[in-house]
Amino acid sequence: MASANSDKDFLEFIIKALVDNPDKVEVNRVVDEMGVLLNVKIDPKDMGRIIGRAGATIRAIRSLTKLVGLKNNARVNVKIEEPAGGSRVSGGSSESSDVMDDLNNI
């Protein structure tokens, strides 16, 4: 039988294989009534590698991790923790914000 932490071990293996700083990868496993939550902390420089283009890499990682969870009869979710001081870059252009301002003024 697989160990209770096989989902955590699997996720940690994948993340460490993708990043430039595998020694800074931390995966914490929390179990509650909703299932298993795997919190991932990585070096801020590796964030782009894990997210991937348009989020494709993290979607694939989440899908694979959920499959490991299904094999062990557990609902598994993956959360990438935003680094301290990190900021989100909006994908919108100034034109889209102008359109939103126009709509709000109607």
Structure explained in plain terms:
The protein starts with 5 loop residues before the first helix and ends with a helix. Helix 1 (6-18) runs antiparallel to helix 3. The radius of gyration is 17 Å and the shape is globular. The chain has four helices and three strands, in the order H-E-E-H-H-E-H. A hairpin with a 2-residue loop joins strand 1 (26-32) and strand 2 (35-41). The protein has 106 residues and is of the alpha+beta class. A three-stranded mixed sheet has the order 1-2-3, covered by helices on one side. It has helices at residues 6-18, 47-51, 56-71, 94-104, and strands at 26-32, 35-41, 76-80.
Helices and strands, in order, run as HEEHHEH
Reported for the largest beta sheet, the result is: 3 strands, mixed
User: Any idea what the shape is?
Assistant: globular
Q: For the residues shown, what is the average pLDDT?
A: 83
Count of runs of 4 or more consecutive helical residues:
4
Strand content: 15-25%
Rg: 17 Å
Q: Outline the low-pLDDT stretches.
A: 89-94
Q: Order of strands side by side in the largest beta sheet?
A: 1-2-3
Structural class: alpha+beta
What is the helix content?
40-55%
What is the CA–CA distance across the termini?
62 Å
Instruction: Find the count of extended strands (DSSP E, 2+ residues).
Output: 3
Please summarize what this structure is.
Helix content is 42%, strand content 18%. With 106 residues, it is of the alpha+beta class.
Which terms summarize this structure?
single chain; 106 residues; three-stranded mixed sheet
